[in-house]
């Protein structure tokens, strides 16, 4: 068991190790951390190996979700507040989230850990303050639960085409220990927390013969981070790095005026321009034409030709 535990720890550490943040910032973390409210869901575009697996499985850019609980003094229930204080030894004024992480289980961590990540807030529309505390309380009670790797694998089987996995297996997925809250994944824990106060995420809606409507809670073990983004009952709140505060501010954005287009930060070019290392070698059938008054093109008999790679066999050229 000691070797298995050591090997499991090494594998999980390798899977959750994050790549350095690169690229342009997409999210204004300072504004997001100022505007976020307790019981908001935070979606994260992760940078680890396991995040890439989850993105493939869920077919979404969001690989992780966390529940924002606020600062320690924002937790109303004194027993749960004391429980957080025992588990978190950081500054009591830190903004905290509860999340389920591979290799660590369900833990409480500071929001600032995600400062370099692409984030989005999903805010439960109309959730009362009392129910928000119930949701947070449910998450606090889940602290210490293991991360359910088996559920992640079952989720992969669930989303695969039924040509690979027979349909008859659909009803049996997730049934093993389904009622025992000893292990979870990030989205399952939060879905269960909102279901505890009967807040809808993606309910099954059926219309009865008498015209009334009945709602059925969806199995929380089927939820993925993208479902909070997709749910019509959560408001999507974005804080882009460059904000558009009114209808015309985009006209004043500091766009590059040279007309450059970039594949990424280190690969930019001007469309139509050929760099010196890209120009083809001259052949008897081509010529490079230079004209001071028209540095990029030449007009001949109503036709426009670029100043490079003019084919001398073109009959329109030979006419002259």
Give the topology.
Elements: H1 2-16, H2 29-35, E1 41-45, H3 49-58, E2 64-70, H4 78-87, E3 96-101, E4 105-110, E5 118-124, H5 129-141, E6 146-147, H6 149-159, E7 183-184, H7 186-195, E8 204-207, E9 213-216, H8 226-230, E10 234-237, E11 261-264, E12 267-269, E13 286-287, E14 297-300, E15 303-306, E16 310-311, H9 315-318
Parallel strand pairs: 6-7
Antiparallel strand pairs: 1-2, 1-5, 2-3, 3-4, 5-10, 8-9, 11-12, 13-16, 14-15
Helix pairs in contact: 5-7
Describe this structure as you would to a colleague.
The protein is α+β, with helices and mostly antiparallel strands. It has 2 domains: 14-250, endopeptidase domain like (from Nostoc punctiforme) (endopeptidase fold (from Nostoc punctiforme)), CATH 3.90.1720.10; 255-318, no CATH class. The chain is 27% helix and 21% strand. It has helices at 2-16, 29-35, 49-58, 78-87, 129-141, 149-159, 186-195, 226-230, 315-318, and strands at residues 41-45, 64-70, 96-101, 105-110, 118-124, 146-147, 183-184, 204-207, 213-216, 234-237, 261-264, 267-269, 286-287, 297-300, 303-306, 310-311. α5 (129-141) crosses α7 (186-195). The N and C termini lie far apart (87 Å). 24% of the residues are buried.
Q: What is the arithmetic mean of pLDDT?
A: 74
Described by the principal axes of the CA atoms, the overall outline is globular
Radius of gyration, in Å, reads 28 Å
Provide the low-confidence segments as ranges.
Answer: 169-183, 282-295
Percentage of β-strand residues: 15-25%
CATH top level of the largest domain? Alpha Beta
What can be said about the biggest beta sheet?
6 strands, antiparallel
**Shape-level CATH architecture of the largest domain:** Alpha-Beta Complex
Structural class: alpha+beta
Can you list the strand order of the major beta sheet? 4-3-2-1-5-10
Within the CATH hierarchy, at the fold level, what is the topology of the largest domain? endopeptidase fold (from Nostoc punctiforme)
Please count the beta strands (DSSP E, at least 2 residues each): 16
């Amino acid at each position: 068991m000691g070797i298995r535990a050591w090997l499991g720890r090494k594998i999980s550490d390798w899977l959750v190790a994050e790549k350095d943040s690169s690229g342009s910032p997409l999210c204004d973390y300072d504004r997001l951390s100022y505007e976020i409210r307790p019981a908001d869901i935070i979606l994260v575009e992760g940078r680890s190996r396991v995040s890439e697996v989850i993105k493939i499985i869920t077919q979404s850019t969001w690989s992780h979700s966390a529940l924002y609980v606020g600062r320690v003094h924002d937790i109303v229930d004194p027993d749960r507040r004391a429980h957080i204080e025992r588990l978190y030894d950081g500054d009591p004024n830190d903004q905290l989230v509860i999340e389920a992480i591979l290799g660590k289980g369900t833990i409480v961590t500071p929001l600032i850990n995600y400062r370099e990540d692409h984030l989005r807030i999903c805010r439960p529309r109309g959730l009362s303050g009392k129910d928000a505390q119930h949701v947070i309380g449910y998450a606090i009670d889940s602290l210490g639960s293991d991360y359910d790797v088996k559920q992640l694998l079952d989720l992969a089987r669930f989303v695969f085409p039924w040509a690979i996995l027979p349909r008859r297996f659909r009803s049996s997925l997730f049934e093993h220990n389904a009622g025992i809250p000893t292990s979870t994944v990030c989205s399952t824990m939060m879905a269960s927390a909102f279901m505890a106060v009967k807040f809808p995420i993606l309910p099954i809606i059926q219309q009865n013969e008498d015209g009334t409507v009945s709602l059925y809670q969806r199995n929380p073990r089927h939820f993925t981070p993208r479902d909070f983004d997709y749910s019509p009952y959560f408001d999507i709140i974005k804080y882009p790095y460059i904000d558009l505060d009114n209808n015309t501010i985009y006209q004043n954005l500091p766009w590059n005026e040279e007309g450059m287009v970039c594949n990424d930060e280190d690969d930019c070019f001007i469309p139509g321009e050929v760099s010196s290392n890209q120009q083809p070698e001259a052949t008897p059938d081509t010529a490079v034409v230079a004209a001071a008054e028209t540095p990029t093109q030449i007009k001949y008999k109503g036709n426009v030709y670029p100043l490079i790679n003019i084919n001398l066999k073109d009959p329109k050229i030979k006419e002259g």
